[in-house]
Inverse folding.
């Protein structure tokens, strides 16, 4: 398996623009997580899905952020409008439903909003 | 109080020494515990997981769990410069929760 695949790897955008980050989880994994990593706040969970259904979105910082999972092999995280404070590395991860299993991370998307 | 706390470091050890990384967690219902390693500019990768009290060894790595004290640690024996990275402690609650909650990480530098 190719692992969790994220695109783009890097994104530079201007404040106010819409940004869409994409993720393909590992086949057979029914949990998908979106994390954000910054120096100040570390690795924070934004939202996670089980079988394409959002389970917990309490980590989504504002209404500017939204996430969808239209099918088992694709998810998006959208920021509209983007702001400089959204600059971070966004990771997608996936796992099976077993309690004692880890989450596998994608390579991340480094977002810079100028 | 943060849910998962780690000494932020940085921690420096000489090559060949033992590196000791510590983590405490606040929720007594936590069931699964993980140590991830993250090299600069890369994504976190799992190095150890532990679910029961006691020690678990894998090569040069030993994870230790004490649920009564709500404490998890990672020992790296015979540290190598290639072990220099940030180590993240992650905790998963029991029940239906499947998300990992991460500590802020400890930056380890192994000096040649």
């Amino acid at each position: 398996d190719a692992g969790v695949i994220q695109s783009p790897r890097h994104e530079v955008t201007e404040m106010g623009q819409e940004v869409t980050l994409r993720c393909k989880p590992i086949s057979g994994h029914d949990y998908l997580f979106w994390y954000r990593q910054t120096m100040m706040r570390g690795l924070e969970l934004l939202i996670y899905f089980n079988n394409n259904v959002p389970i917990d979105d309490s980590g989504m910082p504002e209404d500017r952020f939204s996430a969808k999972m239209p099918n088992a092999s694709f998810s998006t995280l959208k920021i509209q409008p983007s702001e400089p404070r959204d600059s971070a590395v966004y990771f997608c991860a996936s796992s099976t439903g077993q309690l004692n299993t880890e989450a596998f991370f994608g390579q991340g998307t480094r977002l810079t909003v100028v | 109080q943060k849910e998962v706390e780690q000494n932020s470091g940085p921690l420096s050890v000489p090559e060949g020494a033992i590196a000791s990384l510590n983590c405490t967690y606040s929720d007594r219902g936590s069931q699964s515990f993980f140590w991830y390693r993250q090299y600069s500019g890369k994504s976190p990768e799992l190095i150890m997981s532990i679910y029961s009290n006691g020690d678990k060894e894998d090569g040069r790595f030993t994870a230790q769990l004490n649920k009564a004290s709500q404490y998890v640690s990672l020992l790296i024996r015979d540290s190598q410069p290639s072990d220099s990275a940030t180590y993240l402690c992650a905790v998963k609650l029991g029940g239906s929760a499947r998300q990992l909650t991460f500590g802020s990480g400890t930056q380890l530098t192994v000096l040649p």
Observations:
- Chain A is about 0% helix and 55% strand.
- The interface with chain B takes residues 31, 33, 35, 42-45, 48, 50, 56, 91, 93, 95, 97, 99-100, 102-108 of chain A (CB under 8 Å).
